[in-house]
Amino acid sequence: MSLIVIGVLHKYNAEVKNKESSDNYINVTKKILQMYKIKSGCLINGRINEINSAVDRDKQIEVAMPNLAYISGMHVDMIYIEGDGEKDYLFFPNKEWNKIVNFAIFPEEYEIKFEFNTISCGFRKIKLFNKGIVIDK
After folding, report:
1. 8 Å CB contact between 66 and 44
2. Residue 3: how many CB atoms within 10 A of its CB?
3. Of the candidates 81, 78, 79, 2, which has an alpha carbon nearest to the alpha carbon of residue 34?
4. In which region does residue 129 sit, left (phi positive, over 0), alpha (psi from -120 to 50) or beta (all else)?
5. pLDDT recorded at residue 19
6. Can you give the pTM of this predicted structure?
7. What distance in Å separates the CA atoms of residue 48 and residue 117, rounded to the nearest whole number?
8. How many CA atoms lie within 13 Å of 33's alpha carbon, on the beta-carbon side?
9. Residue 133: what pLDDT?
10. Both ends of the chain: CA-CA distance in Å?
11. d(Cα 82, Cα 98) in Å, to the nearest integer?
């Protein structure tokens, strides 16, 4: 089964400690991944299911954009970074963020729906919620 995370894309305004990471992320509720006892830097593996506008059309930057269907189904290995409060961070790696930049996906303007299936931590690979589906909005 899987973990479905639906969240607005954000830009981190401080220096990201992981050099492989872009400064673009979504949040995930802390207790969801905390139960797996993973550390910052682990990869949360899955794919992008959907991208939708998160703002009113009149506030959105106008972009002549290709069909977002090209991004749907794209494999992603998000970098997990433990947060201080109730939320943790899932950062896009630089190599995957560079692909998304070409589609003019701006932080704070788009909501992304991900489906994650596994966690990769070093040589360990852990299946996420293999008996059910968890949805985090």
Report:
1. no
2. 22
3. 81
4. left
5. 81
6. 0.88
7. 12
8. 34
9. 92
10. 17
11. 23
